[in-house]
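Support reply, case 0932

Customer input (verbatim):
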Amino acid sequence: MNLVKKLKISSRNYVTQFFIPKHEAANPRDIEIIQNYLCDKPKILVVTGAGISTESGIPDYRSEGVGLYQRSNHKPVQYPEFIRSHEIRKRYWARNFLGWPKFSNVQPNLTHKKLAEMEKDKKLLHIVTQNVDNLHAKAGSKEFTELHGNGYKVICVGHEGKDRCGYSIDRHDFQKILESFNQDLKEKAEIMKSESFRPDGDVEISSDDIKKFYLPQCPQCMGDLKPNIVFFGDNIPMDRIEKVVNLIINSDGILVLGSSLQVFSGYRIILQAKELGLPTAIVNIGATRADHLVDIKINAKCSDIMKEL
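Our regenerated output:
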């Protein structure tokens, strides 16, 4: 066996051990059920969650035994805290700065690629993702809505409403700015590529590193900068919610992949689909908030199902 193949197998085993909860292999009947469910639904609306990205090496929050909440008492930063406290913003960005080189290098897996193929073959209407990791775009999908935003863009939140300056910058470009202000931590950011990171791409670092970190302000209005994601405690923009509602109305069914639907923004999609009498199906390892509502629930790893479709 050549070295490249050994490294790929080693990487796959590492991901399975640390990011994917224990599960049984998908059986032929499960695959047949989903195949039959999709065969007469060319306008299926696919909802994806963290469970499809764990196979790329991005940990999730809630999976049994391997999710961040299971392995530590860490809680993600809350939006009101981020807006209110310079120290919390500084801590967030210092951790994100050191985690970005590895997080941004994560690649899509079979499920992302399969969904991109389905879109190309006009076998789905749209993807609504709860993830902020940009992996659907990397896989080649075009028709997707990022319910909670995207960590690959940085925006100014220094002013509210009409007075907001509208400044934004690509996260890769912002990383270069952060490097210019934090040369002593730049080398450490490269070293951290070998470390594990949290679901949103940040890493655990020392209080000394946080103290040394310099966080620049918006160059247009000197306001505060944040990634273009919906933090816990924040609200999804109303135009995005309205878009998803219209997608549900125009679909012929819902397929949830890799989400426990514990966050209401995802659970609400199932509630709205059931109100409209639409068929619903879930593929996820472990229980979900909507198991009692859906027509089909398959307890399996998403790629085990998707690779056979």
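We compared this against your earlier run and they match. Two observations from our side: The radius of gyration is 20 Å. The first helix runs from residue 3 to 19. Please reopen the case if you see a mismatch on your end.
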